Amino acid sequence: MNPFDDPDGTFSVLVNAEQQHSLWPSQVPVPSGWQVAHSDDTRDACVAYIERNWTDIRPLSART
């Protein structure tokens, strides 16, 4: 199974310099340029975190 699609997996939320968010399987290494904003939680909890915190989906550079 693809770890990105695992409904029972453990996930993190990553954020890049443009303040874009990504749902990320916890067992997959964090790619360069991204940092963990919310770690080791259920898929649903991470999606809820993204919905609460990423209210403007435009990249930071496009907001100015």
TrEMBL record:
<dbReference type="GO" id="GO:0005829">
    <property type="term" value="C:cytosol"/>
</dbReference>
<protein>
    <submittedName>
        <fullName>Protein mbtH</fullName>
    </submittedName>
</protein>
<dbReference type="Pfam" id="PF03621">
    <property type="entry name" value="MbtH"/>
</dbReference>
<feature type="domain" description="MbtH-like">
    <location>
        <begin position="2"/>
        <end position="52"/>
    </location>
</feature>
<dbReference type="InterPro" id="IPR037407">
    <property type="entry name" value="MLP_fam"/>
</dbReference>
<dbReference type="InterPro" id="IPR005153">
    <property type="entry name" value="MbtH-like_dom"/>
</dbReference>
<dbReference type="InterPro" id="IPR038020">
    <property type="entry name" value="MbtH-like_sf"/>
</dbReference>
<dbReference type="GO" id="GO:0019290">
    <property type="term" value="P:siderophore biosynthetic process"/>
</dbReference>
